[in-house]
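From: lab user (bench 3)
To: helpdesk
Subject: output format question, protein + calcium ion

Hello, I'm new to running complex predictions and I'm not sure whether the block I got back is the full result or only part of it. Here's what I submitted:
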Amino acid sequence: MHLLVVEDDARLVRLLKRLLSQDRHVVETASTAAEALEIATSSIELDAIVLDIGLPDRSGFEVARRLRKDGCQVPILMLTARDAVSDRVEGLDAGADDYLVKPFAYEELLARLRALGRRPPARKYVRLAAGPIALDEAKRRVTVDGHSVDLSQREFSILECLLRRPGQVLTRDQLLDYAWPYGVALTPNTVEAYIHLLRDKLGPAADRVETVRGVGYRLRED
Ligand code: CA
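Helpdesk reply: Thanks, we reran it on our side. This is the complete output you should expect:
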């Protein structure tokens, strides 16, 4: 399996990396949430993520939530420091698939990872549509009335966010949060600028992206 181990305890990381490598797993490591998100959202195809809750910058819960929100379906095995029910519940709520209480036996980690690896892959991508607009997440392709529209990555993400919640008003902050990488400092004006570009490119379907004055934007349904 190709694994990502996210843990700030350097000794434990070294140990896991050595053991897992001996068992022919390919292991990436991250010691912070930021690093973990960067690796998990890169082009590396991971089979599972071993994710510690206690990280120096953000909690493992936040990492899991963020990954799931971004559509990452890689199975997550959460490491909890104590056998607290609340930690387990929060972990599973955040999108973790399983958890392991520290300290754990290496054999148990292996068994859990094998179990995660056996799960059928979740459907990763969907096709979204509203009126003449169609968005294919797998192909990263948008069409209006069947004609291909060339969108930048951010324009695509904003449209995707709107299409995922048709008819709902989304604030500029919500769109920022969805379309930009974690921790990038931007102002809501940035969203306005991108909405403007997006409307331009949507041409005849531009009026589907409605401004809700003082609040944000909404994608008009049929
Ligand atoms: Ca830790």
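A quick orientation on your result: The mean pLDDT is 88. Let us know if anything else is unclear.
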